[in-house]
């Protein structure tokens, strides 16, 4: 599968188009750095921004979006904006209230994608019913989940009227999520990678460096290209303009089948984030 441009999209199972590549803003605090990161990403052609209530930076993301679309001369409708409901708000009414709070902070009339952030046992089904309501009322373009394992998805879909359109999970060469990807593909759920660069821990990996040297690319670019060729949406985080540009410079080369297999072979099921089967927040 060849993704050729930063603006290329995958079509979710409800027909909504989602960019393959976006900007993540995890752990970026409110302030000028955040606003400038979002604004410069949009100015350099990014059409997707991913945030969450728990990041406590939706106000700045909204500001960056407004400045970015003004400077780039595009419309809000051309952007794909994602946020997530936090664990403390996972109830039917509280999830709807959380959605409204996120919209208010972002200064937006709607979100393109709203996700349940973590599969909190005994709570995520009520939250999913709320997302279904928001979707059926036309208040959000697409709904999905984050950090759901196969068994969480199976459990959710037992009672769901609408199956998730996206599952955003930790995914990088040390945790390649192959089985989950197959399950998602079989069920028409788009897999999306958070922390695709393993928070920088893979950038000096010798195997990846060898492949990068062959293509005259950075290790980060190799990993992001690997995501795309695996059919995984990716949202690398950066606040530096040159890095935002560099991360997206992955559309002028292709990894060979052998190189893809070598990168797949780095998998150790090793996480940098919490385990979705064992978290206490």
UniProtKB/TrEMBL annotation:
CDD domains associated with the record: AKR_AKR5G1-3
Gene3D superfamilies on file: NADP-dependent oxidoreductase domain (3.20.20.100)
Chain positions of site Lowers pKa of active site Tyr: 84
GO molecular function, one term: oxidoreductase activity
InterPro entries: AKR, AKR5G, Aldo/ket_reductase_CS, NAD(P)_OxRdtase_dom_sf, NADP_OxRdtase_dom
Domain NADP-dependent oxidoreductase: 32-267
Catalytic-site annotation from UniProt: 55 (proton donor)
Family: Belongs to the aldo/keto reductase family.
Name of protein: Aldo/keto reductase
Organism name: Cytobacillus kochii
């Amino acid at each position: 599968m060849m993704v050729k441009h930063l603006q290329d999209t995958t079509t979710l199972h409800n027909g909504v188009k989602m960019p393959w590549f976006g900007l993540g803003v995890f752990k970026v605090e409110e302030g000028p750095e955040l606003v400038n990161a979002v604004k410069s990403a949009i100015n350099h052609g990014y059409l997707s921004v991913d945030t969450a209530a728990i990041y406590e930076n939706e106000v700045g993301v909204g500001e960056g979006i407004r400045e970015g679309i003004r400077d780039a001369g595009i419309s809000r409708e051309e952007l794909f904006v994602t946020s997530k409901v936090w664990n403390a708000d996972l109830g039917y009414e509280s999830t709807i209230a959380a959605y409204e709070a996120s919209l208010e902070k972002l200064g937006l009339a709607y979100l393109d994608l709203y996700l349940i952030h973590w599969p909190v046992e005994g709570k995520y089904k009520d939250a999913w019913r709320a997302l279904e309501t928001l979707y059926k009322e036309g208040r959000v373009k697409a709904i999905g989940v984050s950090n759901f394992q196969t068994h969480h998805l199976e459990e959710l879909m037992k009672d769901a009227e609408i199956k998730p359109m996206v599952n955003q999970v930790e995914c990088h060469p040390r945790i390649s999520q192959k089985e989950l990807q197959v399950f998602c593909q079989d069920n028409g759920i788009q897999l999306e990678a958070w922390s695709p660069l393993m928070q920088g821990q893979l950038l000096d990996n010798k195997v990846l460096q060898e492949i990068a040297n062959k293509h005259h690319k950075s290790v980060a670019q190799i990993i992001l290209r690997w995501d795309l060729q695996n059919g995984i949406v990716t949202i690398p985080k950066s606040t530096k303009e040159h890095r935002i540009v560099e991360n997206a410079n992955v559309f002028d080369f292709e990894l060979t089948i052998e190189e893809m297999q070598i990168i797949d072979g780095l998998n150790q099921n090793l996480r940098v984030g919490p385990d979705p089967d064992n978290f206490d927040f």
